Protein 1
Amino acid sequence: MAYKRQGATLSMSKFREIIRLHELGHNKSEIARSCFISRTAVRDYLHRAQGQSLSYDQLSRLSDSDIQHLLGKGQRQSSRKKPAIDFEYVHREMQRKGVTLGLLWMEGKERGDWNCSYSGFCRRYRKWKKQHSLSMRQTHKGAEKIFVDYCGMTVPVVHPKTGEVTQAQVFVACCGASNYTYAEATESQTIKNWLGSHQRSLAFFGGVPVAIVPDNLKSGVTDPCRYEPGINRSYQDFAEHYNVIILPARPQMPSG
């Protein structure tokens, strides 16, 4: 069952995830990026949950239909369309924690600030940025983010008895602030190996970060399209167990 708002549909499992991440102290930008909805939508869902005094623990015990009944129906708010895109504003927002072009595009579409496609929005922003010769430096706080991925190259592993050679996958986890790195070889990129490598890397680092940033690969992300990658269910369970947020990068555009 899903909750409708402003022409969009939100599953109750995603609504629960929004509340879970909010209670962990993540801001609206981070929640929007992890759940692939706009910050405006996150703000609306949080407002409705707070209006009903709903906590994540309560939501976990309620059925989807009960939650939908408590939330009620959303109301669409129309706003006047603006003829031009304020890329100065877009660029400033991009420097805020957890903000991406995808989030800004969705919010602008929702407010009616522009009516262009996402690809067109990105193309116009890159053109504007090139004309203004702007640069953006990314900085990371200690224990804030760990970046994870499989490196492109494999390593040959020889079976000690049969002599058979297989190509092992190399998993790499790197702390954003210190570049402290963990790496290991596994037989494949299956979800079992993917999550196992995560667990061993966290044990190696001696703690859990605020966020894990994976590249878009099938082990951790379902349907890794350019616009809205979704988190694998097992990966989602992993995140809930460790009380961490997953912030997938878009294909060919890893993000911090």
Note: The longest strand covers residues 165-175.
Protein 2
Amino acid sequence: MNCPESYELIFRTTAAEDDVVVVHLTARSGAGGYPVYEDESGIVRAEVSERGEVRMLASGGHQAPRVPLLARPLTHGAAGRTDR
């Protein structure tokens, strides 16, 4: 399976703008057999299918991860954009 290297996970917030977290491909697979992605801190983890379906994974105790509205694959070099 050819997996994107990174995704933007877009979460709805009560603020004016949505919250966007960039996650990167890891060497792990989730329970569904799909690749696991995580952010730079290792706190936000998600299993993402080839159809863009997201299963959030807890990285520690007492977490209740929210499901993002959208998982947008990033093309090479698109992470860290400042055009938002």
Note: The chain has no helices and six strands.
Protein 3
Amino acid sequence: MIIWGMEKIYLVSGTIGCIFIVISMIFSGSMVSGDRMRANFATETTEHRDERNKSTLNSLYIALPNIIVAALFYYLRK
């Protein structure tokens, strides 16, 4: 806010939200091909799958409020 002022504040929140969405997609394993996904599913244990799903959801829980705040700031600015 100090550097850009309130006109560009939605960029900070939106960038953080987008970064955490990408992290969530990477942790979920959705960025790989079908055969790699099938191999990962067949070789991972239930504990590893639960840990991966927890990391995915936590990243998504961080991303969603940031995206919502960015959208609000963007529309309130206009």
Note: The chain has a mean pLDDT of 89.
Protein 4
Amino acid sequence: MNKLWKIIQYGYLVVAAICLVEGIIRFNSDRNKAYLFLIVAVLVTFMFFVKRRLRQKIEKRNSNKPN
């Protein structure tokens, strides 16, 4: 399960990169959509850090558990 969480965690960065590039490309033609893509990129990047911290806390808690 932890491997899947790590893959999904880095998927957030991929989505953020795609949104960032799309926002930059659309900036001259359609500013409203460009701003939307840039805001989504920031939010997804924030989610990456939140999910990473949560996963690290869970791993630390599970490693301290007696079997």
Note: The radius of gyration is 16 Å.
